[in-house]
Amino acid sequence: SQxxxxxxxxxxxxxxxxxxxxxYVRKTFDRSTKVLDFHHPHQLLEGMEGFxxxxxxxxxSLEQILVDCRDxxxxxxxxxxxxxxxxxxxxxxxxxxxxxxxxxxxxxxMFTYEIAPVxxxxxxxxxKKMREIIGWxxxxxxxxxxxxxxxxxxxxxxxxxxxxxxxxxxxxxxxxPRLVLFTSEHSHYSIKKAGAVLGFGKExxxxxxxxxxxxxIPADLESKIIDAKQKGYVPLFVNATAGTTVYGxxxxxxxxxxxxxxxxxxxxxxxxxxxxxLMSRKHRHKLSGIERANSVTWNPHKMMGVPLQCSAILxxxxxxxxxxxSMCAGYLFQPxxxxxxxxxxxxxxxxxxxxxxxxxxxxxxxxxxGHNSCSYVMSSQINLxxxxxxxxxxxxxxxxxxxxxxxxxxxxWYIPPSLRGMPHGDERREKLHRVAPKIKAMMMECxxxxxxxxxxxxxxxxxxxxxxxxxVTKSDIDFLIDEIERLGHDL
Length: 491
Description:
Aspartate Aminotransferase, domain 1; 13% strand; 12 strands; PyrdxlP-dep_Trfase_major; pyridoxal phosphate; Aspartate Aminotransferase, domain 2; Glutamate decarboxylase 1b; pyridoxal phosphate binding; 5-stranded mixed β-sheet; PyrdxlP-dep_Trfase; 16 helices; alpha/beta
């Protein structure tokens, strides 16, 4: 009793934090709430109405800590808002949120069964289910959850190198010839980063040409493999992207797999963005041939709406992650424990400590009846893309960047009235290049919605709208179009 009363202020504090969080969730789904209350970095650093980011030498009261919690949410971005279209990961799933709360409360680490028995088993069972969905026989293989798609992609390059040149683990890159990697010119930059970080060098990451829809041209891959071999290089690894970051393009996996088998190369599929379509009976054909891959990246925190972070690296060959990464640290991975130590998965990771990313995903899968619910949600999201496309393509103020996109990415230019009669040329290009950044700036100042923009190749800045938030409706799509027109009309 005395113990309980001693902790009462702390328990009361937690209850008040829960109230702050539940109010935030409620407002996030309220479309009258702003997506963000934007302030420039210098404004936040100088302090906002009692909200001070500086760390003081004296502890603050719990009352002030509650104020800090409220203000942190107030000045942040509501990525779960139905009108947030800025990133590939968005939304706020209530089951997933509950899973993340429980995970933080448990506050354990994924390196051994000894300290995370339930989470380790959940991870193994879920990874097996994901491998089954990919199409690997009996779901056999290996995998783990990593701190994001970029790290999952890096794992794929590491295990490919270990498969063909295992001595690199002990002797370094001097034990291997000059190795080259191949990836689409539209692929995620993490493949180039993996080349730099792992010692291949950016020059040895060879970019492949794409067609008008942003898909790798297989003939260019074969031509560049032959060219690399003629130069004395050793082709090692090909990355096929299932859902590119900007265009949402799906590389032709079967054609690429044929070439990889012909030249004995490791095939990785980066399905960070598009992997969720494996759950859709209607759309999984876009990843046809993925079962032929040696490894796959799949981010449930994107299309499937699992709270950040949740990314899986899945490998067809069992044991290769362990062989590649194990260091047999005696203080963690003792072989003489009283349980089956094959469940101590930490030694196959490049990290030591590893966050529990599985529980929220496992819980959402259970709550939404896994495959069936996800299939419906994926189809609904792609239908929303169609609604967006059908609305803007009939407007003179919008011009499509990409015909017949394969995913929920919609890339387009807004053409303000001042540019509609202007002949095509350098002056028009320069002015059009400035339109998207100006509209985005006004959008953030207003706080009504958020959507991304970027150039691509020789194309000037264009908007990229993506649907990954399961709460988005057609009215939100209509709002985005109307808001872009409202903000850009006088440019």
